[in-house]
Design a protein that fits this description.
With about 260 residues, the chain is of the alpha/beta class. It has a single domain, classed as Spore Coat Polysaccharide Biosynthesis Protein SpsA, Chain A (Alpha-Beta Complex), CATH 3.90.550. About 45% of the residues lie in helices and about 15% in strands. It has 9 helices and 7 strands; from the N terminus they run E-H-E-H-E-H-E-H-E-H-H-E-H-H-E-H. It has a 7-stranded mixed sheet, with helices on both faces. Helix 1 packs parallel to helix 2 and helix 5 packs parallel to helix 9. The termini are far apart. The protein binds guanosine-5'-triphosphate (GTP) and magnesium ion. Guanosine-5'-triphosphate (GTP) binds next to strand 1, strand 2 and helix 3.
Length: about 260
């Protein structure tokens, strides 16, 4: 089976080599154990936003295929990468060393064994306080609470208990991309992806992971600016769903708005 690891980067030279090596070691080991019967042939795509600190060169030196995406945005980088990925299973994480790359094989095994479509990781389960600033934590709490309330009907129909709407580590089957529709170029793409998975009735689960402090390059996320954008996206998406429900329902084949709302 073929797998694709996708990593968006913007000036992550300090950590990208470590992330890719950690993943490669775990993936090779798992091919002799978890995937002994059908080893995974991994490709690694690093979608680089024209970093100026040598990130692309470091990633290429680790054997990654580097795609330069000059158009700004985390979501833009992923959407470009998704179009290039050839794996039957896709896995994602940040290039800043905060997510546990070593967990990916175990998550792929779970996806296949449990016949799931999509796995998202919960960073908040065992959160070390140093891994997130207070502003980030407050932002996450507001966004998660808003999503849980505004999308309660859709979440309960899907059965997904989504505690961390902003997590950037996912493992999923490539067919998911044929079912959903992504529009966001910035950070809101992360929540858009999960909402689309829920709306289209895909089989999804959230898995707790360890999440570490960023120890390399500068953060790109602005708690207030990105927080506001993420909240605005959730609000717009929810209003759009309500409007579509009034005009005949959304999505095709997915859960419907309850009558009377
Ligand atoms: N190609 C590309 N990558 C980006 C862009 N913005 C962020 N990234 C990368 O996307 C990943 C997520 O961004 P982060 O800044 O780590 O966002 P975050 O994890 O929410 O915030 P931190 O807690 O500070 O790590 C990192 O690997 C970034 O380098 C962009 O505009 N283009
Ligand atoms: Mg990060």
């Amino acid at each position: 089976m073929r797998g694709s690891l996708l990593v968006p980067t913007l000036n992550e030279a300090a950590t990208i080599g470590h992330v890719l090596r950690e993943f490669r070691t775990a993936a090779l080991a798992a091919n002799g154990t978890l995937f002994r019967d059908d080893p995974i042939d991994w490709e690694t795509l690093v979608i680089d936003g024209a970093s100026t600190d040598g990130t692309a060169e470091r990633a290429a030196a680790e054997g990654a295929r580097v795609i330069v995406e000059r158009r700004p945005g985390y979501g833009r980088a992923y959407r470009t990468g998704f179009a290039e990925a050839t794996g039957a299973v896709l896995a994602t994480l940040d290039g800043d060393g905060t997510y546990p790359a070593t967990e990916i094989p175990r998550l792929v095994r779970k996806l296949l064994d449990e016949n799931l479509d999509f796995l998202t990781c919960n960073r908040l389960a065992f959160l070390d306080r140093r891994a997130m600033t207070t502003e980030h934590r407050i932002g996450n709490w507001v966004l998660n609470s808003f999503l849980r309330i505004a999308f309660a009907h859709y979440l309960s129909s899907s059965g997904l208990r989504l505690a961390d709407s902003q997590s950037g580590m996912w493992v999923f089957r490539r067919e998911v991309l044929d079912r959903i529709h992504l529009t966001q170029d910035g950070m809101p793409m992360s929540e858009e992806l999960k909402i689309e998975v829920i709306l289209h009735g895909l089989k999804a689960e959230e898995v707790p992971i360890r999440y570490a402090e960023r120890w390399g390059g500068p953060p790109k996320l602005s708690s207030w600016q990105d927080g506001r954008r993420n909240l605005l996206f959730l609000l717009t998406k929810r209003l759009e769903l309500a409007r579509q429900a009034r005009g005949g329902g959304y999505p095709i084949g997915g859960p419907q708005e309850p009558a009377g709302r």
